[in-house]
Amino acid sequence: MTTRVMYISYDGLLDPLGQSQVLPYIRELARRGVNIRAISFEKPELAAPRAIEKTKAELAAAGVRWHPLPYHRRPTLPATAWDILRGISLARSLAKRESVDLVHARSYIAGIIALAACRRTGAKFLFDMRGFWPDERVEGGGWKKDGLLYRSFKAIERRLLAGADGIVSLTRRGADILERDMLPAARGDSPPVAVIPTCADLDRFLPVERQRSGVDNVRLIYLGSLGSWYMLEQMLAFFSVLRKQAPGSTFRILTGSDPGMVERSAEAAGIGPDTLAAVSVETVPHERVPEKLAAADCSIFFIRPTFSKQASCATKFAESLACGVPVVINSGVGDHDRHVRGPRTGVVLDSLDEETYRTAAVTLTELLKDPDTASRCRTVAEESFSLAGAVEQYLGLYERLTDGKRR
Question: Which of 2, 65, 96, 187 is 20 to 30 A from 307, comparing alpha carbons?
Fold first, then answer.
């Protein structure tokens, strides 16, 4: 028989994030023999009845029973509290009725729901942290460090860590902080801590033959939301310097964010109209992202290197490498550096200033001349960021936490 797992995500399966970082995992886990019940919170603008029924049918065919709940946005605190209460009620009911062996919670809100369900049923609790969320909220400007919300969620974080039978960190750096500082403060001992980074589906994100038109033409790409953690001004400033090295270069930005942010950031960075004319902003459906990414020469993302970002792993990082596309990144974020510096899969900037941009632009153009660069990128993705590899790690963790028992 199979292990019975309840997977809880506060991100909706119909969200772009859910499409790339939840659905592929639970489908593959089910294919590997895990009996999955999934609970998620779906945003009303995405949760059209047809979309819900289509996804529910697809998951049922894969062996996953999906229980979508509506996500409530306003007013923020009461809405989230209501979602948590609804989630706890459903999770407890399902866990008891279905004799669930393990509850796998993706991040903190899901963790609150999971811990409440596990306490009533005796199921094991796997806390898949996805980063240090309360600290992210403060560093992103959403909360105050001396405020009630931050202090409350740090207390909740300690409860989740104390109650977890197993923990997943996206990065080795995050796991080190957990084991050195956070777990001793929360419980005194250390449950199993697995490092499973954000991965890519290597069957979807594939390299293609790219026809380079010479060192004067670099096709730069950025994928994802703008603002907050992502330093758009600095990325545009790097692109401006790159165009002095490679005048025919272009910068394609694939985002669902306000396109006006690009023009405002360019003005703030002192980017001239000629350079701005080489920047394009597009919104593309999730299924077309692999082809757009694979057509680029290089992927760029600069992320603010704060404390919480030591525990982060950008989805675009794995997807870029899987497509054989080298990256231009800044240092101090997760484990990105070590996957770039050693295997030469891109350029790491230790500071963000014009002199560093010039050096990085030269290094990048030299890297793009190397015919083995794409294969090195793909190899790193296969060895460290494959969906299949992540699923294998989850299966091993499930086995360990349930002592190999099968119902």
Answer: 187
